[in-house]
């Protein structure tokens, strides 16, 4: 029997997504603890998997532990047969093949084990003669050979599943790069950068190769004495969300000069399937131009306190405009919709874009023209078709639209 020499699963959910469709029993066995991941075939076979080793017949338990200890040191595949208690309490013969399992960082953490119920193939009757036993052994070998062929198919399905996961990650990266905000995902106490979008790379003035897989303070050592690293660790430790407005961020340029910037940013905790906090989602907006402009206006206001009423009115209007802008940043999430194929089928739409469109989630799965018939005669369907056919992005400011809200057309600008 031949297998690939390593498997990598980030979470139990990922293991189950890949392994549950398989027609044989598969488990991921940590060598250091009793913790195991089981696919659906295992769970159907035995209803009590809280402590895996407890289900092994005591006649085989010591040998089973010895095998796992021995092959854990050599980190090589091995085969074994033993009796295991099924869901009704009956011990049945299992034939098992175990192969090494590695973490995403490449460290050995246990084995991926494929098991077959061979109770019907084992000769346990005292009155069987040697010829019958040999015939049954030959049948068993044929069954195992057939299982080998099935496992080869399983390996191919695993490869396809990994390719699907890679495509999903690429799609997520594309969505992140379309966001107007700077986004970065940071993991662990060392604050290692796991994912980052182009907007954030441009703000940091770094390339993807310079940041992915590296600690935050190694990437930006000039931020060591600023509060960001301690805030990130606090979010991981406590689970609180940190929301900061108009924070100064000082970068040191290669020539020794200081680049002063300002950002609005939010730190949100990220957890794994067990609820353990493992990282932070960072979303930020650079507002340097706006802050510097406001500070300049404040300075002018001190010098022109005795100016005429028209100037005071202009300053009031500027303050109101600024307040509205802050409110949008603080309170409103980014509106995002994903349209599929040239028919512009609504694949997903978040709460904000549904609110803007004046629709509910019932429109998901419909074409945009069917979900928003009021767009007929407006330029948006044509613009979107041009983006789809040419691959060129479209940007606009203060573009006018008419959208139906509660049976009435509402004029909205984007």
Q: Taking all residues together, what is the mean pLDDT?
A: 82
Count of alpha and pi helical runs: 13
Radius of gyration: 30 Å
Specify the helix fraction band. Answer: 40-55%
Beta-strand residue fraction: 25-35%
Question: H/E element string?
Answer: HEEHHEEEHEEHHHHEEEHHEEHHHEE
Q: Strands of the largest sheet, in order across it?
A: 2-1-5-4-3
Q: How is the main sheet built?
A: 5 strands, antiparallel
General form: elongated
Number of DSSP-assigned strands: 14
Low-pLDDT windows of residues:
1-6, 325-330
Q: Terminal Cα separation, in Å?
A: 61 Å
Judged by helices, strands and strand pairing, the structural class is alpha+beta
List descriptors.
single chain, five-stranded antiparallel β-sheet, elongated, 414 residues, alpha+beta
Describe the structure.
With 414 residues, the protein is an alpha+beta fold. The chain is 40% helix and 26% strand. The chain is built from 13 helices and 14 strands. The protein has helices at 12-19, 40-45, 58-74, 130-178, 198-204, 208-211, 216-219, 228-238, 288-303, 309-331, 351-357, 368-371, 380-390; strands spanning 25-30, 36-38, 78-85, 91-102, 108-117, 182-187, 192-196, 242-252, 258-271, 277-286, 337-340, 345-349, 400-405, 408-413. A 5-stranded antiparallel β-sheet has the order 2-1-5-4-3, sandwiched between helices. It is elongated, with a radius of gyration of 30 Å. The relative contact order is 0.06.
